[in-house]
From TrEMBL:
Gene3D superfamilies tied to this protein: P-loop containing nucleotide triphosphate hydrolases
Entry-linked PANTHER family: MAMMARY TURMOR VIRUS RECEPTOR HOMOLOG 1, 2 MTVR1, 2, TPR AND ANKYRIN REPEAT-CONTAINING PROTEIN 1
Protein name, per record: TPR and ankyrin repeat-containing protein 1-like
SUPFAM superfamilies noted in UniProt: P-loop containing nucleoside triphosphate hydrolases, TPR-like
Length: 1408
């Protein structure tokens, strides 16, 4: 369609319209498929719609659409053939309506017989028709010129042609398109079809048209466009084949397998007749033709490019000339086809065609073939000799590079340009000149040929230029100039020579002709300024221009001479300077001084010349020669100004030093940032103290920021030791105090190894003398020594150090390190770094602030000098390549003061230095954190004490808190910190271990009283209350457990806890009561707590809930809750809270019994100096027995229900086998304490211990001490105080008897006795609790009043325990708790159960 649209642009008469005709059913060529409706659409869009903008109305009117006309009557073919063709188009209309125009059927008034279907026989139809004589070469009639055999493709054509020879025309359907014949034999169309049995789809059409008979196959495919798309092409080819005949059509298939559907279709319609294929019928098919008819058919086939069949026709016609012509054309076409696939064979065939064309007189065709073969010379001769075409002959000779023949051919045809071009290409320049001369002679002189003469001149000029250019390319400049001289004008010569860059030849030409001005310009153009100068000087007499040209040519001596001759003084000295002709310049100056009238001007010129000479040597880096001319300057000021202007500070410094100008030399050294040199000059000037301090400052920042170093550690550098010795030598000339200062600074700055003891001495000195340099470097080196040590070299503290500074210094003095000393020196270093950062934050502010003492060290550390320049404070970088400057990037703008100095803004310096300090603190702190974590892992691996592990945890917490609160790290460091253990959770497990006796050591108690410990535990509280949603019993339990185990939290934390406890009224009431109780212990009334706006409890409610009552109520609610719920309170937490409740209840008496663990936990909670008043503790409104009974019931439940208890333990993620025995022991201890404090529950305790599943979980020494084997019949109860004391001692949790008031009863037993009346200070009580075994002493005289039936005797032996009956009456009020699980007879005969007591050692020895 797009090709049709091109007619709009290529046809001149587009406005006249177009007529398109054709048959869309015959579009069988590959890639061709259209309908006339499609053409109408293209014509409308391209020719009408796009032409609406035309300004000519008539043109728009002409462009209108025409209707499609159907040519219905056929004057060529008879009706029988047309009906058969119409049956094929009907199938196309049905199956492919979009690929063909649907037209009315064609009609014809010509009569003819119906098409014939030839039934197949055993022999092929070809053999029957043409007989066996074809193969043997016999004589047969064969088909005539108006008969044809149509086959599907080339391979079928080749096979049939081989069988019939030249007795019939054989064409493919595609080849016969556009041709017509009297008779057509369509052979094996269906047998060779790619559709094969898919032709059965025709039955689908017949069924739809009600044309099927019962004899037709029942199974056939339904039409599918995707599966039968090729059917469209097959039907169109069949249509074309049918419509090639004018009279007779024979359709023959060797096999009817695939043809049957179409044959049945045609038979059903009655469109065909069926005949047997035999010899008699074959004779009727044959028809003879005359030679004229064969020639006519041959010419038609020739014109259709069917050369093979055309050759056969001419052969049958006996026309040899046409036969050779057709054969030659066929060979040429074959060669074209083989050109890409087989070029060698193509050339052979093409040469045969060329020879045939030449033989029959087709000279032009023969020449074209020879051109295609590349035989251009032969083609040229044919064009020249036989075709009389000199232009084509010349072109061929040129392609053959036969330039002489080409020139002759072009000349004969008067093709001037082509002739001279051939001469140029063949270097036939003289021949070209002869042709030019001949043309000029032959050119007539009349007006009609004047134009031709000008053309010849123009062509001649171009030829001469091409000749000259050719010689130029051959580098034959002599011959080139010969032709250039022959140019018609000087302008043409100049233009040509400039275009090819032959300026030297043009310069010679201009100079010869006396064109000196043009010669000078050419010399300048080619860069030959010396030659231009000589022309100016020698030929033109212009010294100024000559001097300028000599200067450009760097011929400075010639330039100086030229300027001198013209009295151009400044220019003369300038070129002397440029050419380093300094002595020559001085000679000219001397000459001018003699002749000049005024000397001052000469002196000025002389000074400028000397400066230029010195500057020239400076640029050549010949400083020795430069100094020679500088010394010749007229004044010292001129020398200083000059040397400063060119930055030769070193030379000026040497000059000033030589002259003894030390003050000026010092300023110069300061300007160039050369501190060692400045120190030397200060020393020479007698300022020894300043020199020594300056060296120390230089060594400090140089050691820190030597190339590649990042500010630490101190690195060696060249001359470091020499500089330190020089500082010492300068200091020796000063006071002893100053010398000691320098010695200490040199000691810490030196790179040599220095012991910890020596570093400590330097640190001690720095603290006394307030030498910040020594202090900071000593601390950092001590800290590095810790970080460099392996974990095995660290010593561990067994107790909390009160004076960590003294302890750390003691360790360091012995060259030892410990965990405590590491943290001490890290804190010292961190504090000093913090002070430095505080100073940096004040940079640019008024100087009267407290951080100024750190300013000098900070500037020395970073290598920065603070100077006042033009009333402004400037900060000079002594080492602009230091890493701290590089890492800050472009955060501040640097100002170059000199070659060695860079100045920066003070605030920007402070910002950059602050960033470095922060990074350094973070880096060192991370290293300390790594070291402490490694120490912690070592303590775990080596099973160090709980105190050692806890100390590490607290240090880790301290470090991590500092890092996270002080710095914002990148993602990698954040991930690194996340990989550290969580100290709060782990420390919580250490403070409240499953085995409570593990934490019952004095150093752990001391540690827990520290603020760091409390902060760590408060982190656990925050972690538990920070989660969203309601708090679980597990979270509540842990919060209360920490509160009771570490003391009252901060007011802010209490507010947060109270707000989170709001939905659990019982626990909220308890913590409110606990807060009031804590305030009471601190001497503050509850009115302050009642002012808490977050509290929902009114003042009246405080009177309703005492501390003990609210505690008991909260525990009861927790106990009754579903223990299977998520995060229920763990067993250890619940038992801990029960123990704390009982301790509060025990305070209701004058004295009470408890364990060392419980009492120590109580003391840790108090956080007060004095033991509290009893009335502020035991504020219960409930009877103690009620609380005791509920606790006993709880204990029984846990002990008897072993399976449930184990499940509870497992749910709390504890090891059941490890913790269940600990829990059982703790519960039994609670029962023992209840019995001792109430005188009841002995029967419950006895029954529990009788249960094997309970007693088996208890330690055997504990059981043996608590219930000795019965060997003697005793009248007293089996459970004794002494037995309890011994049992508790054996489990590592001694019994403690606490006296709260005066006149309370005495007890003679090895328990720990605490009298709060005599020893009210909590610290003293704590020390008494942790006295070594056997050192406990009675705090008050023993009295027997108010203690009936309690003491029955004294202990006479360490092995003997006093049996004390604590029971005042039989236990009749015990809650049975899990009564359904007990033996109903468990309470009977308790008084009759008397057990054996242990026999004393002496009695056993006596019996033995």
């Amino acid at each position: 369609m797009s090709q049709i649209a091109l007619f709009k642009y290529i046809c001149k008469n587009v406005d006249e319209g177009f007529v398109f005709s054709g048959d869309t059913a015959q579009t069988i060529a590959r890639g061709t498929d259209f309908r006339f409706e499609d053409i109408r659409s293209v014509f409308y869009n391209e020719f009408i719609m796009k032409s609406k903008s035309d300004k000519y109305v008539e043109r728009r009117e002409k462009r209108r659409m025409s209707e499609i006309f159907n040519l219905q009557q056929n004057f060529r073919t008879h009706a029988g053939v047309l009906k058969l063709a119409q049956s094929v188009t009907d199938l196309l209309y049905q199956f492919f309506p979009q690929s063909v125009d649907i037209l009315k059927p064609e009609i014809s008034f010509i009569y003819g017989e119906a098409p014939v279907l030839l039934k197949p026989n055993d022999e092929s139809a070809i053999e029957i028709i043409f007989g066996k004589t074809v193969k043997t070469g016999g004589k047969v009639v064969g088909f005539g010129a108006e008969q044809v055999i149509l086959v599907r493709d080339d391979s079928a054509q080749e096979g049939i042609s081989r069988d019939v020879g030249n007795h019939a025309l054989v064409l493919t359907i595609l080849e016969c398109k556009g041709l017509e014949f009297q008779d057509v034999l369509l052979y094996n169309f269906f047998s060779s079809s790619p559709l094969k049995n898919q032709w059965r789809v025709v039955y689908d059409f017949m069924e739809k048209k009600d044309l099927r008979d019962s004899c037709f196959p029942r199974c056939f495919p339904r039409f599918s466009h995707a599966r039968h798309s090729i059917l469209c092409s097959e039907l169109k080819q069949l249509y074309v084949a049918i419509t090639r005949t004018r009279q007779r059509l024979w359709i023959c298939e060797d096999s009817e397998e695939f043809a049957a559907p179409m044959f049945d279709f045609w038979k059903k319609l009655g469109l065909v007749q069926v005949r047997e294929m035999d010899e008699s019928f074959s004779q009727t098919m044959l028809m003879a033709s005359s030679p004229a008819e064969w020639k006519s058919r041959g010419i038609k086939l020739y014109q259709e490019n069917k050369y093979q069949m055309a050759t056969m026709c001419f052969e049958r016609a006996g026309d040899t000339n046409w036969e050779k012509r057709a054969k030659a054309a066929g060979l040429r076409a074959t060669a074209d086809q083989l050109r890409e696939s087989n070029p060698q064979e193509a050339c052979t065939i093409l040469r045969q065609a060329a020879e045939l064309f030449d033989c029959i007189g087709r000279a032009e065709s023969a020449a074209e073939c020879f051109c295609d073969l590349g035989d251009y010379e032969r083609a040229g001769r044919i064009y020249y000799d036989k075709c009389r075409d000199p232009k084509k002959a010349g072109d061929c000779f040129t392609s053959a590079k036969s330039y002489k023949l080409a020139a002759k051919a072009y000349a004969d045809g008067n093709y001037f340009l082509e002739c001279l071009s051939a001469c140029t290409q063949g270097n036939l320049f003289e021949l070209g000149r002869q042709y030019l001369k001949k043309w000029k002679q032959n050119a007539p002189g009349d007006d009609g040929t004047a134009k031709q003469s000008k053309e010849i001149e123009k062509v001649g000029q171009e030829f001469l230029e091409s000749c000259a250019l050719s010689y130029y390319k051959l580098k034959d400049h002599k011959s080139m100039i010969k032709y250039v001289r022959a140019f018609l004008t000087m302008d043409s010569r100049r233009k040509f020579l400039k275009s090819i860059g032959c300026l030297e030849e043009l310069l010679l030409l201009e100079e010869e002709l006396g064109n000196f001005k043009e010669a000078v310009e050419i010399a300048k153009l080619r860069g030959d300024y010396e030659r231009a100068g000589r022309i100016y000087f020698d030929k033109c007499g212009d010294p100024k221009q000559a001097g300028d040209c000599f200067t450009s040519a760097r011929s400075y001596e010639l330039a100086a001479k030229a300027y001198a001759d013209g009295n151009y003084l400044l220019e003369c000295l300038s070129v002397c300077t440029q050419g380093s002709l300094f002595e020559l310049g001085r000679q000219y100056i001397t000459k001018w001084k003699q002749n000049a009238p005024g000397e001052k001007e000469i002196e000025k010129i002389e000074q400028e010349f000397l400066e230029s000479c010195a500057l020239s040597y400076y640029k050549l880096k010949d400083f020795k020669s430069m100094t020679k001319y500088v010394r010749a300057f007229l004044s010292m000021d001129s020398r200083r100004n000059f040397l400063k202007s060119i930055g030769c500070i070193d030379e000026l410094l040497l000059l000033e030093e030589e002259l003894g100008n030390f003050a000026e030399a010092i300023e110069i050294a300061k300007l160039r940032g050369d501190l060692p040199r400045e120190a030397d000059l200060l020393g020479k000037a007698g300022h020894l103290k300043e020199a020594s301090l300056l060296i120390i400052s230089f060594v400090l920042h140089r050691s820190l920021w030597v190339t590649g170093n990042r500010g630490w550690p101190l690195r060696p550098f060249r001359q470091k030791q020499m500089l330190l010795k020089k500082a010492m030598s300068f200091a020796q000339e000063e006071s002893n105090e100053f010398y000691e200062r320098i010695r200490r600074e040199v000691e810490v700055l030196a790179h040599e190894h220095i012991s910890l003891h020596e570093l400590l001495q330097s640190l001690t000195y720095s603290e006394l003398c307030k030498n910040l340099t020594v202090e900071l470097i000593s601390i950092r080196r001590i800290l590095d020594a810790h970080l460099d040590c392996t974990t095995r070299k660290f010593e561990w503290e067994d107790e909390l150090q009160v004076d960590m500074k003294k302890h750390s210094e003691d360790k360091i003095s012995l060259n030892h390190v410990s965990v405590g000393s590491l943290m001490h020196f890290w804190n010292m270093w961190k504090r000093n770094m913090s002070n430095i950062m505080q100073y940096l934050k004040t940079v640019g502010k008024p100087d009267d602030n407290e951080w100024l003492e750190y300013g000098e060290f900070c500037l020395n550390y970073f290598g920065v000098r603070r100077q006042v320049i033009n009333s402004n404070v400037a900060y000079i970088l002594l080492n602009s390549d230091a890493e701290w400057v590089k890492t800050t990037g472009s955060v501040f703008k640097q100002k170059q003061l000199s070659e060695n100095q860079v100045s920066i803004d003070g605030r920007k310096f402070a910002s950059a230095a602050l960033s470095h300090c922060q990074a350094e603190v973070a880096s060192v702190s991370l290293k300390v954190l790594d070291t402490v974590e490694a120490l912690y892992k070592l303590s775990i691996r080596e099973s160090f004490s709980l105190f050692c592990q806890s100390i590490c945890l607290i240090d880790i917490y301290q470090l991590m808190k500092f890092l996270t609160e002080s710095f914002k790290f990148n993602a990698s460091v954040e991930r690194r910190l996340e990989n550290f253990l969580r100290p709060p959770i782990t420390y919580f497990k250490y403070v409240f271990p499953l085995d409570c006796c593990k934490s019952l050591v004095e150093n752990m108690i001391s540690l827990r009283k520290t603020e760091l410990s409390r902060s760590l535990l408060e982190e656990v509280i925050v972690d538990n209350i920070s989660n969203k949603g309601d708090l679980t019993y597990g979270q509540i339990g842990r919060v209360v457990m920490i509160w009771l185990g570490s003391g009252k939290p901060t007011d802010d934390l209490y507010m947060k806890i109270a707000k989170r406890f709001e939905k659990n009224f019982s626990w909220r009431a308890f913590i409110d009561s606990l807060q009031v109780s804590s305030l009471r212990h601190s001497g503050i009334t509850e009115s302050r707590s009642l002012g808490d706006p977050s509290s929902n409890t009114s003042a009246e409610d405080w009177k309703k809930f005492s501390l003990i009552d609210s505690f008991h109520e909260a525990l009861r609610d927790t106990y009754l809750a579903n223990w299977r719920s998520y995060d229920y309170v763990s067993p250890d937490c619940l038992i801990y809270l029960v123990e704390r409740l009982l301790l509060l209840v025990f305070h209701s008496k004058d004295y009470f019994f408890t364990t060392k663990y419980s009492f120590v936990e109580w003391l840790v909670y108090l956080k007060a100096d004095m033991y509290p008043d009893v009335s502020s503790v035991a504020d219960t409104q409930l009877s103690p027995e009620i609380i005791f009974d509920s606790v006993v019931m709880m204990v029984e439940q846990f002990l008897f229900n072993k399976r449930e208890t184990a499940s509870w333990i497992a749910k709390s993620k504890f090891d059941v086998d490890q913790y269940h025995p600990l829990l059982a022991l703790r519960l039994v201890v609670i029962l023992c304490l209840l019995h001792l404090n109430s005188g009841k529950y002995s029967n419950v305790l006895s029954h529990l211990l009788d249960q094997s599943h309970i007693s088996s979980q208890l330690p055997m020494p504990f059981i043996q001490a608590l219930r000795p084997r019965r060997k003697l019949n005793l009248t007293q109860d089996w459970f004794s105080l002494n037995a309890t004391v011994e049992a508790f001692r054996r489990i590592g949790n001694p019994l403690v008897i606490v006296h709260l008031r005066e006149n309370s009863p005495k007890f003679a037993c090895p328990a720990i006795i605490i009298d709060t009346a005599l020893t009210p200070r909590i610290d003293d009580i704590t020390r008494n609790l942790f006295r070594k075994q056997g050192s406990y002493h009675q705090q008050r005289p023993m009295v027997e009043a108010n203690a009936p039936n309690l003491c029955e005797g004294l202990v006479h032996n360490a092995e003997s325990l006093m049996s004390i009956d604590i029971s005042a009456a039989p236990d009749q009020k015990m809650s049975t708790g899990s009564g359904t699980e007990r033996n109903p007879q468990m309470y009977s005969g308790l008084s009759e159960k008397i057990f054996d007591v242990q026999i004393s050692t002496e009695k056993r020895q006596h019996e033995e």
